[in-house]
Design goal:
With 123 residues, the chain is mostly helical. It contains five helices and two strands. It has one domain. The protein has a two-stranded antiparallel ribbon with strand order 1-2. Strand 1 and strand 2 (53-54) form a beta hairpin. The radius of gyration is 16 Å and the shape is globular.
């Protein structure tokens, strides 16, 4: 849970680097919370099938939109890529696959133009 909260405390920090662990734990908690909120939306009758979400899940999605983009950019920085690479995800199928491969790669060791590696202890 600390990985999730750490990303939320860096709400709009688009600089620096995010480890693979930080990014994927944030994604995992987002999915779990989204599923729970969707179940609650369905039980309370606030789920809209056309929109694909309900009131609570919609509010949550809006609330984590900026932190999600920020951690995604920091994760790309950790692989020594510009945050602009996230736009490749707009290309149907191929773009999403390429972005997934980038996000799954290990951190580049040492310091790069975006800062020190999050895996290495601070000196």
């Amino acid at each position: 849970m600390n990985w999730y909260l750490e990303v939320l405390t860096k709400y709009a920090v688009f600089s620096g680097r995010a480890s693979r662990k930080e990014y994927w734990f944030f994604c995992m908690f987002n999915i779990i919370i989204g599923v729970v909120l969707t179940v609650i939306d369905r039980m309370t009758g606030s789920y809209n099938a056309k929109a694909g979400m309900g009131l609570l899940s919609g509010i949550y999605a809006l609330a984590v939109m900026i932190p999600s983009a920020a951690v995604l950019m920091r994760r790309l920085h950790d692989t020594n890529r510009s945050g602009w690479w996230l736009l490749i995800g707009l290309i149907p199928l191929i773009g999403v696959i390429v972005l997934f491969v980038f996000l799954a790669q290990d951190s580049k060791p040492g310091v790069n133009q975006y800062g020190a590696s999050p895996k290495e202890p601070a000196a």
